[in-house]
Design a protein that fits this description.
The complex is a heterodimer of chains A (749) and B (81). Chain A contains 19 helices and 27 strands. Chain A has 749 residues and is an alpha+beta fold. In chain A, strands 3-5-1-12-9-10-11 form a seven-stranded mixed sheet, sandwiched between helices. By secondary structure, chain B is an alpha+beta fold. Helices cover 21% and strands 27% of the residues of chain B. The chains are: A alpha+beta (749), B alpha+beta (81).
Chain lengths: 749, 81
């Protein structure tokens, strides 16, 4: 049934309240079942053997001794994985990333996997697998990979002008106008180069799954994922299975942030299970998560911005170079789309270069590709403001995009929130707080697209009138609570009467991943429509009970009410009463909806950050942090605030500490949380939030996605704050103590 | 006729043009007629595109109608985290 998704300015009773989350008790008491918590009778332990080289030809794999070891039930190499991907290059790359085919393309690339009766046996088996490598030249740095004479990683990637092999797999350009004319109009031009190092999403729960394929080629997969329907499709295609014969159940998820939108171990676990004819459980170690899952790109970015004396930006360009890991991707393309999205610029151009290097295949990381150009551009915005002797916030307000602005990536904006977030930042008490010695303040703004996609939900009314909502978008940030609130709002019943669950792939039609900040936006829309469908059924049952026309029955405050002449004395029929009489009025009552939820509404945020830098040690402490973001409508304000705080916390780690460190041998030097330091509570101040609600005109409740934008400004806000604290422009993340001290020393030279 | 603006790598599929003229009154017609006129665009459609109509971005819903004076952009399909 079609529904109108137009915003209606509805007044809410339960949406917007701060109710307890349905999964809260299980999570704090340890009862929640994550990826590694599943068990099946007879299950085996699966382990991977991974390349110790950054780039090497695999001359021979000898598994004969390992196969003879007691307790080993299956060994998989690429020879056991026929290429069923046809002409689908992306799928071919996924297959090769899951298991090396002839060459190891990065340190940590899987080359074999075993399934054995226990961990000790599996470890012994890995040691018995003999692999003969021929090391090949490698390159891990994005700029070096683009240089003439750099080691070429894939012959099939060609320079589009010369036709010669190249590591640049995609060049993307966005923008409009004539940038040279724009710079000619400028009174001041600032041009600067920035680098950001590769970081990992840092989810606490490693990748884990329990795979079970039976002899009739039907299977089940229990897995920690952001999208079990997508995992089902990919695994089924790689293994030659019908999607209907593979049931995938998503576990509770201990963080994903984009990294669990891609398969890494799952197809191999299924292949091991099929070969061993036993269930196989695989749990990645932290070392493996760092070396062989999907971090974000390292980047190198040139930014040039010109402005008039009054602060009007006349022209802007950005050249963005992104590592893609060992396979082609589109991460610089995304970066080049996003670069100048916050601003109204007449002449603007961004060019993105996606570059292949000997590092793990890059995956999405919360607002993928956006924080890096924000760091570069927002830093140059501060430099322009300083040159013009303007307050940085005023320069941003003057140039902020607004309704009717042509976005740097093409289309014209509708109602957007960048101006209001900047105004709120300007007026926030944080901006008036006095700073002390060695302290600095930074402001930055950020953008993320948001999107919707394919979604369906079932809303089933139980025999006692309680409501079971089954959704297909994995709950990564409290969406079950938000969706239950929405169902309760529509049905006019208390939140506690609704229980939201994530259904497995056999329970619902296809649902896209929980990515792009789409979970509450899209499943919320489907829930509204499913509830409205259920209400129609409830009205029909009441009309049948009263023997009056359907048109004489309305649904209000959780009950059917008869209207019109002669009906005023009929007492309402509550949801519970209608549920109880359902067997005699037509059977079970349910509402269902499937929707393509487009027009998610773009999202903007402005952040304010204060830091204190110890000039002796270079150590930076974030002392105050404020996030201001447009949520459209905050369905559950606690979880919106949690998203804003979480994004800022991750951004603080990215800005100050986190980085993949590669040695000259191309191997990762710090694959563990001791050497790759994510922020802990004691590193962070209380992160203050301010939610703005500028309704999305294309959602009935005005909802926009909120999960990603909050990670976009922190690198830049902290970069500006640190630069103001030490008096030296920082242009390389992480701004670790060593880099800060070097920048201070260099400035004195 | 709609004026359809193209961005990024999509331009190379239409011979480098920033804008092409296509007869269409819905996204479905736009995709169909664009593919007929510029066969090289098909690979991009297969891997995923988005259509922005008057600033609203549609990734999947091809039933959306397009008025003759609409601002239409063809964009690469984006991925989120």
């Amino acid at each position: 049934m079609g529904h109108d998704s137009t915003y209606t300015n509805q007044k809410f009773k339960v949406v917007g309240t701060r109710v307890n989350r349905p999964d809260g008790v299980d999570k704090v008491t340890g009862r929640a079942k994550y990826g590694a918590d599943a068990y099946a009778p007879g299950q085996l332990v699966g382990l991977f053997l991974r390349s110790p080289h950054a780039h090497a030809k695999i001359k021979k794999i000898d598994v004969s001794k390992a196969e003879k070891l007691d307790g080993v039930k299956a060994i998989i190499t690429s020879a056991d994985l026929p290429d069923l991907t046809g002409d689908d290059r992306d799928l071919t790359d996924i297959l090769e990333n899951c298991m090396a085919r002839g060459r190891a393309l990065y340190d940590g690339h899987a080359v074999a996997a075993v399934a054995a009766i226990d961990m000790q046996t599996a470890k012994k088996a890995l040691k018995l697998i003999k692999i003969s490598y021929q090391k090949l030249p490698h390159v891990t740095d994005v700029d070096q990979a683009m240089e003439p004479g750099a080691p070429i990683i894939h012959d099939f990637v060609r320079d589009r002008k010369t036709g010669k092999p190249s590591n640049v797999c995609k060049i993307s350009q966005f923008g409009h106008g004539d940038v040279e004319a724009g710079f000619a109009e400028a009174d001041v031009i600032i041009e600067k180069t920035f680098k950001t190092e590769q970081t990992h999403q840092g989810y606490i729960e490693p990748h884990a799954c329990l795979a079970n394929i039976s002899s009739d080629n039907t299977g089940e997969l229990w897995v920690t994922t952001q999208g079990h329907f997508g995992f089902r499709s990919t695994c089924a295609e790689l293994l030659g299975m019908d999607v209907a014969k593979l049931k995938v159940t998503s576990s509770e998820i201990g963080g994903g942030f984009g990294g669990k939108t891609h398969v890494w171990i799952e197809p191999i676990a299924l292949a091991l299970s099929r070969k061993a004819n036993r269930p196989v459980k695989v749990v990645m170690s932290r070392d493996e998560v760092f070396r062989a899952s999907g971090p974000t790109s390292a980047t190198s970015i040139d930014v040039k911005i010109g402005a008039k004396k009054d602060g009007t930006i006349t022209g802007a360009t950005a050249d963005l170079r992104y590592t893609n890991g060992a396979f082609p991707g589109f991460w610089a393309m995304l970066g080049s789309m996003i670069s100048f999205a916050c601003y109204d610029i007449k002449h603007v151009k961004s060019i993105g270069y996606d570059v292949i290097v000997n590092r793990p295949k890059v995956a999405a990381y919360r607002a993928p590709s956006a924080p890096m150009p924000a760091f570069a551009i927002e830093s140059v915005m501060d430099l322009i403001a300083a040159e013009l002797k303007m307050k940085p916030i005023e320069l941003r307000i003057k140039n902020a995009a607004k309704e009717g602005t042509r976005a740097s990536y093409g289309p014209t904006y509708g109602p957007i929130g960048i101006g209001p977030t900047l105004d709120a930042a300007k007026n926030h008490p944080h901006m008036r707080a006095r700073l002390k010695k060695n302290q600095g303040r930074g402001v930055a703004c950020g953008f993320w697209f948001n999107f919707g996609g394919q979604t369906c939900v079932d809303l089933n009314i139980g025999i006692d009138g309680s409501v079971n909502l089954i959704v297909g978008t994995v709950d990564v940030g409290g969406s079950r609570a938000s969706l239950a609130l929405i169902a309760a709002e529509e049905l006019g019943i208390p939140y506690e009467q609704v229980r939201a669950n994530v259904g497995d792939t056999a329970s619902l039609g296809h649902n896209d991943m929980t990515d792009g900040s789409r979970g509450t936006f899209s499943s919320g829309m489907a829930t509204i429509f499913a509830a409205r469908n259920a209400i129609t059924v409830l009205r029909e049952r009441a009309a049948k009970t009263w023997d009056i026309p359907l048109e004489s029955v309305i649904w209000k405050e959780g009950a059917a009410r008869a209207t019109g002449k002669g009906n005023s004395n009929r007492p309402p029929l509550s949801l519970k009463e209608l549920a109880a009489s359902a067997p005699n009025t037509g059977g079970p009552i349910a509402g269902h909806n499937e929707v393509v939820a487009d027009n998610a509404g773009v999202s903007f945020a402005s952040h304010i950050c204060d830091v204190e830098v110890d000039p002796e040690t270079g150590v930076t402490k974030v002392i105050r942090y404020t996030v201001i973001q447009d949520a459209g409508k905050a369905v559950h304000p606690d979880y919106v605030e949690g998203q804003l705080q979480g994004g800022a916390a991750q951004g603080i780690g990215w800005a100050l500490n986190e980085e993949y460190v590669y040695g000259d041998d191309g191997c990762l030097q710090n694959p563990g949380f001791l050497d790759y330091r994510i922020p802990v509570c004691s590193d962070l101040p209380f992160i203050d939030t301010q939610i703005l609600e500028i309704p999305n005109p294309d959602h009935p409740y005005g909802i926009r996605g909120v999960g990603e934008t909050s990670i976009v400004p922190p690198l830049a806000a902290i970069g500006n704050a640190v630069s103001n604290a030490v008096g030296v422009r920082m242009n390389h993340t992480p701004m670790s103590p060593i880099r800060i001290l070097k920048a201070i020393e260099d400035s004195k030279a | 006729m709609l004026s359809v603006s193209l961005t990024g790598a999509l331009r190379s599929a239409v011979g480098g043009a920033e804008c092409v003229q296509i007869q269409a009154s819905s996204i479905r017609e736009l995709i169909s007629n664009l593919s007929d006129q510029y066969p090289n665009i098909r690979q991009h459609i297969d891997t995923g595109i988005a259509v922005a109509i008057d600033g609203k971005i549609y990734r999947d819903n091809w039933d959306v109608e397009i008025s003759a004076d609409a601002e239409v952009f063809l964009l690469p399909r984006i991925q989120g985290g």
